[in-house]
Amino acid sequence: MNKLQMTLFAALGVVTVWFIVTWTRLARRTQIVDVPPADRHTLFHAVVAFVFTFFDALGVGNFAPTTSAFKFRGSVPDEQIPGTLNVGYAIPTIAQAYISIALVKVDPTTLTLMIAAAVIGAWLGAGVVAHWPRRRIQLGMGGALLAAAVLMLMKQFKVGPVGDEVLALDGMRLGVGLATIFCLGGLMTLGIGLYAPCLILVNLLGMNETTAYPIMMGSCAFLMPVGGMQFIREGSYHLQTALVMTLCGLPASIIALTLFSKLPMVYVRWLVIVAVSYAATMMLRSAWNERQPTASSSGDRVDD
User: Fold this and answer.
1) Is residue 302, in this structure, part of any structural domain at all?
2) Spatial separation of the C-alpha atoms in residues 265 and 255, rounded to whole Å
3) Residue 92 included in any domain
4) For the chain, how many structural domains are there in total?
5) Is the dihedral of CA 78, 80, 83, 87 positive or negative?
6) Is residue 252 in a domain?
7) Helices (H), the chain
8) Which of 53, 205, 271, 280 could form an SS bridge with 145, CB 3.0 to 4.6 Å?
9) Ordered per-residue pLDDT tens for the chain, 304 residues
């Protein structure tokens, strides 16, 4: 293990201890009302967290399917879902970062710079992307993800150039990678996940697909505890559900990443293609749902 990896591990350790200690202290001090009664849905939440975190560790992502499950069952109020996701999945994501950084070969300098760019993007880009039209971003990201899924299908069937399988970036490709993941970090503030776009990014940059895992998991491991802490301080999350998600998501992450090291990359690529296509579909669907009802709004103005 080199010095950069040891530094990342140490920094993750500090973040983990800070998150657990602060969460425990605030949870005891803050009055949180879990509505509806959480005990009716504990088993359901445990299954959801385990299954979706298992696939999350393989790169499929768990925010969107978990949200769909909560809304289908009505087990978590809509206004508490974002906070519950960020708080409940923070520790499992940190575990994913530890394991993926230890298991997956990637240039330490490239890894550190990419994680730093994503974190800085989330901090500095938040105020910028918050003013962008959400629907325009959804349309652009959805279209880009669909195009990327097509490119990955072409690679899977060996249509067109295969590309490189490098473990490090330098020069122009490093600059493009840092700039892109900086933007992706900022876009996380709008609820656009990092996993699927990051998988596509490293693929298009000619890197081995597996290098995306320590990059994206390391980035989220730093971002999610900080973001989740804001929800904890405001009491804007479902406490019991978040605890269940943490306890069930943690072993799921460990099991999935243990299997990942033995899983042939052809199957991982198919999982990624499915994940990216799903993310693109959800993005475009959200954009469609948020379209401006010009006709009805015009009629309302006439009636007034």
Assistant:
1) no
2) 17
3) yes
4) 1
5) negative
6) yes
7) 3-29, 42-57, 63-73, 81-88, 90-103, 108-129, 134-156, 171-187, 195-204, 212-234, 239-260, 265-289, 294-303
8) 280
9) 678 888 889 999 999 999 999 999 988 876 555 555 555 678 888 999 998 899 888 777 777 778 778 877 777 887 778 788 888 999 999 999 999 888 888 888 889 999 989 888 877 765 565 556 667 666 766 776 677 677 667 766 766 545 567 787 888 889 999 998 888 887 765 556 677 778 778 878 888 778 888 988 998 899 888 878 888 888 888 888 999 999 999 999 999 888 776 666 666 667 667 766 776 777 677 778 766 554 444 444 434 3
CB atoms within 10 A of CB 233: 12
What is the token pair recorded at 44? 């359901």
Amino acid of residue 278: Y
Buried b (16+ CB within 10 A) or exposed e, 146-176: bebbebbeebeeeeeeeeeebeebeeebbee
In a domain, residue 299? The reply is no
Domain that includes residue 54, residue range: 3-290
